[in-house]
Design a protein that fits this description.
The chain has about 280 residues and is of the alpha/beta class. It is about 25% helix and about 15% strand. It folds into 2 domains: about 20-80, no CATH class; about 100-240, Glycosyl transferase family 10, C-terminal domain (Rossmann fold). It contains 7 helices and 9 strands. The strands form 2 sheets. It has a 5-stranded parallel beta sheet, sandwiched between helices. A 4-stranded parallel beta sheet has the order 1-2-3-4, with helices on one face.
Length: about 280
């Protein structure tokens, strides 16, 4: 980011120039005792508290809205980077391109946080397509007979994508509806070649082609969306799967490729360079 800086990562010591603080303070030792610059980063819908030792700061947030009950402001030091950018499937492309009639199951549901709205959607899907909708995480919508073995690994697990590749649809609904908060869920489904059924931030259509996924928030009711999904033929599912997934002029194409410099990467480089300059 800055030619004169060679970053060295440390978890302790006094010779610190910049502290990166995340939301998980319970996992961070309070070892810094000197004033310096701080970078606050969060992959959640909330931000870490500001330090009294910060002489200057940057905020890297995965939401467009500044969280309530904080002292942060939406200014030049507040940088929005959607969480999905950190997914390994951002640049991998579709890993499974199996047509609908060769996918043995209808809908996959893999979540660990029992959000009532999401649970209700899955329950309604199970009612319409009994035996064809499967829960592979902690949550099962109150339909225990839908349970399958839990998928091991992290949120970006290839095992999860492989499991999704056996399904026509994946429930890819966010934990909260916060502007700009778009996580890995929609890309996990895309990498598997399944159609994401999304609900969350309205800015999702800024990045992804609205014809390549189903946005539950576009329907007059939850039930209307459920009925639409269940009415689709294999031919119609294949037509949706064939649509380009990313919008034209997608800001984050090859975002972590050092050989690619687009307008967004240049904008962020300048911000960091100015912040790190003496």
């Amino acid at each position: 980011m800055c030619d004169k800086w060679v970053p060295v990562w440390k978890n302790e010591g006094e010779d610190i120039d910049v502290v990166v603080r995340s939301s998980f303070l319970d996992q961070q030792a309070a070892w810094n005792t000197k004033p310096c610059r701080y970078i606050y980063w969060s992959g959640e819908t909330y931000l870490p508290p500001q330090s009294d030792l910060a002489t200057d700061h940057l905020v890297i947030s995965t939401t467009l809205d500044v969280p309530e009950n904080t002292d942060y402001k939406r200014d030049q030091n507040y940088i929005y980077v959607p969480f999905f950018v950190f997914s390994p499937y951002l640049s991998s492309g579709k890993l499974f391109d199996t047509p609908a009639n060769q996918r043995p199951h209808f809908l996959a549901y893999c979540h660990s946080n029992p959000i009532e709205y999401r649970e209700t959607v899955f329950r309604k899907m199970c009612e319409r397509r009994p035996g064809e909708c499967h829960a592979m995480g902690v949550c099962d919508g109150g339909v225990p007979e839908s349970r399958r073995d839990n998928i091991p690994g992290h949120w970006d697990s290839i095992d999860l994508v492989k499991a999704y590749s056996q399904y026509k649809f994946v429930l890819a609904m966010e934990n909260k509806q916060v502007e700009g908060y778009i996580t890995e869920k929609i890309l996990n489904a895309y990498a598997a070649g399944a159609i994401p059924i999304y609900s969350g931030s309205s800015t999702v259509s800024t990045f992804f082609n609205h014809e390549a996924y189903i946005n539950m928030d576009d329907f007059v009711s939850m039930q209307a969306c459920v009925e639409y999904v269940c009415s689709l033929t294999d031919k119609q599912i294949d037509e949706i799967q064939a649509k380009p997934f990313f919008k034209e002029n997608f800001l984050y194409t090859n975002f972590f490729d050092p050989g690619v410099l687009n307008g967004e990467k240049e904008r962020l480089r300048v911000i960091f360079k100015d912040f790190l300059a003496d």
